[in-house]
TrEMBL record:
SUPFAM superfamilies: Putative modulator of DNA gyrase, PmbA/TldD. Belongs to the peptidase U62 family. Residues 226-458 form the Metalloprotease TldD/E C-terminal domain. This is Protein tldD. Residues 111-219 form the Metalloprotease TldD/E central domain. One of its GO terms (biological process) is proteolysis. It comes from the Bacteria. Residues 23-85 form the Metalloprotease TldD/E N-terminal domain. Pfam families: PmbA_TldD_1st (PF01523), PmbA_TldD_2nd (PF19290), PmbA_TldD_3rd (PF19289).
Amino acid sequence: MLSQSLIEDVLTAALSTGGDFSEIFVEDRFTNNFTLQSGKIETCLSGRDFGIGIRVFKGLQSVYAYTTDHSKEGLLKAAKNAAQAISGNSIIQLAPFVHESVENIHPIHLNPQEVDKSRKASIMKNAYDSAKNYHSSISQVTVRYMDEEQNVLIANSEGKFAEDKRVRSRLAIQAVAVRDNQMETGFHGPGAHQGFEFFENLNIDHFANEAARIAVTMLDASPCPSGKFPVIIDNDFGGVIFHEACGHGLEATAVAKNNSVFANRIGEKVAPSIVTYIDDGTIQNEWGSNNIDDEGEKTRKNVLIENGILKGYLIDKFNSRRMGMESTGSGRRQSFRYAPTSRMTNTYIAPGTSTPEEIIANTEHGIYTKYMGGGQVNPSTGDYNFAVMEAYEVKNGKLGKPLKGATLIGNGPKTLQLVDMVGNNLGHGAGMCGSLSGSIPVNVGQPMIRVSEITVGGTKGE
């Protein structure tokens, strides 16, 4: 992507004013994004994005610059501009590069860049037809197709030199059901760190029908009551609530500055013993997985909470300096336009021993949330509110009528302490996560869990 001699020159220039560490991140990305609506392809966008990010450290000072000019003059100018913000007395020498052999633990069998657009359109049309034909009340279906190939090169003044190729694929299906003056929406968005074979092996009818089923079911839903209830949160994307309300609080981005309720609490009991919380970027072909992070460190399985005890954090290279702890292979960024920081990959609650049937049967009265929607969280406190896309009443240990308008309101660390049943049906859901270093692909996951009490916002008087 760039010659080794040029990279050496750039890293040296970045250190020219006294920095103690320099890094270059080279990215060459190819993307395809298509949208199908009303049975027709509405948008068809393909592109290439190439650029270089340059970072310099001096103690606890970090400077970042990026450029799309890959000429020697352009790169040296960007490196020297970054260096101008650093001042020091000594100039360090680059360590000899050690070319790391990056093991590909996410095999790609069919690169989407080599697949004709007509085959991609066929995948979208199949999803559209399945959702549209699910029920007569389905008035609109939108299908979005995405694939990308991201090639990266990461080298630094400590001698790291690593290259990697990442290929991701995703299909997003949204269905709208209408009856009289009422409109409801359902959504599913499966994705993987995988090639076009992902689409060929995907049960498209299942995901399309689920998106449509949610929308149709909610047409007959009753307004959700408000109050404090036991809440059962189903597996898969249900894990988004702890991703937002707890996961971000375990990232060094917050912990290193004591902006997290989990700061300085390693070894403390922060959850019931039935809760183990893991971030694992090595799960084969999962949406949030990588071979290496965006600082060139191998991704790994990081156990954050084990049997209720806080064991560790997600740490990037710069914040490892602040914390005096090693990087956990968690430095991630959206693109070369962002400096990396600590981010999640595939974060999930580990499976327990209860079956979903046991969890429901042991709940006398409460709310069952099958699919979560969007939400908001304050990372420094863990306070959250989340919309629920599909919910049901639980009465006398059985699922009852569907409920609409449910919102879960609470505090992540406190909610974590109130988990009293953990199922055995672990599932993962694909999503995008936004933070300081941009929007990145992540998985959220969990088995079905029960929280003994959550404040549910709904409709009073029901």
